[in-house]
Write the structure tokens for this entry.
Amino acid sequence: MGVAQVQNELSVYQSMAARFDTAAEKLKLDEGLKKYLRTPNREIIVHIPVLMDSGQLEVFDGFRVQHSIARGPAKGGIRYSPDVTLDEIRGLAAEMTWKCAVVNIPFGGAKGGIICDPNQLSLGELERITRRYTAEILDYIGPERDVPAPDMNTNEQTMAWIMDTYSMHVRHTVTASVTGKPLDLGGSRGRREATGRGCMIVCHEALKRFGRRIDTTRVIIQGFGNVGSQAARLMYEAGYKIIGVADVHGGIFNTHGLDIHALIDYVSEHKTVVGFPDGESIGNQEILEQDCDVLIPAATESVITSKNADRIKARILVEGANSPTTPPADDILFDRGVFVVPDILANAGGVTVSYFEWVQDRQGYFWPEVDVNERLKHIQVSAFNDVVRYGEKHNVNNRIAAYMLAIDRVSFSLKLRGIYA
Ligand code: NAD
């Protein structure tokens, strides 16, 4: 559960379901189809025995939920966290289906998780957990079935272990079995920056709609991990003024703009933005409510709720994280005229370049970074325009428009295939 969910807002799954219901109703979706699309295809629960460094045997619980394979293999990240639940994974898996459909790439949706605290585990323990989890779900994954990727607390190394374990079992190297791998093992150029780059691309498009200039646009970013730090760096280099950044330990704020290159160096040494000399310290929730033009929540879910949505001052919200805004907060933001670029559009750069990685692995032919970035831009800009136009046509906000567009595409594929019922 997200931090703010404790304050009685909807869970990730409930939020997804509420938005799905609204969109499905507007689309006048058939009741049976609605029931089918709301339900995941498959939910796998595994219990993972792991020999700890102490010599003790420990058992961890893991999940993999495949929501849909209607448009192609299931696709989605794996997160390691002490708080991860099946319900959360179920919601995130469905969101992956909608995300892949919004950017129109040939994947379905999945998500995985293991209940563990990676900070308390040695590298060897993490490797053993990852390999045994992979072995437990092996029959259900693979380049044609379900392709995992990194998510919270998993990274390129985790993907290398999954790829190796999968390959050992099938007796040949299958680089396309996961994405987000190291470059030397069939990873794609540009994958590491892709989600942050995608956030920047949709932000540029949003600014164009308002006739705004990049160099006078003030940005605040919550989260300074893969998504937040890359978005900050790329946007800083593009000329945006990044006035606030926060991580799990706290935030820093400078109305004149932060030097993001210096901040990245500081974080690589101190492991947090806290204490960066060229800014004032600020709380990591408080930062969301500061005056700015663009707010990018890029940390965790349910940080913008009915409790703080009326205090958000940004004109544009670009959702780098998954599910950072709850449905009650959506309504408040919409009434206040905040232009929301919803998660399933804003952070789809990661899965789009994962798709490129999968394609490159299957072709055995790797593209220069400039081609990856150009193709990513083309897809994100088209998806942005599709969503905004859909919203205008149906008179709904961007979030519901993105859901409607995605559900429309997935149900069209299902109708073409026919439901094997
Ligand atoms: P990460 O683990 O690399 O970084 C997370 C960052 O958020 C860290 O800086 C952490 O300190 C910070 N954080 C955590 N809780 C916080 C809090 N309560 N307040 C402020 N900061 C907090 O994770 P990531 O890969 O950057 O992912 C961030 C979000 O983006 C997640 O919701 C993830 O599902 C989503 N996402 C990631 C990708 C990707 O390609 N990595 C793609 C799509 C969506």
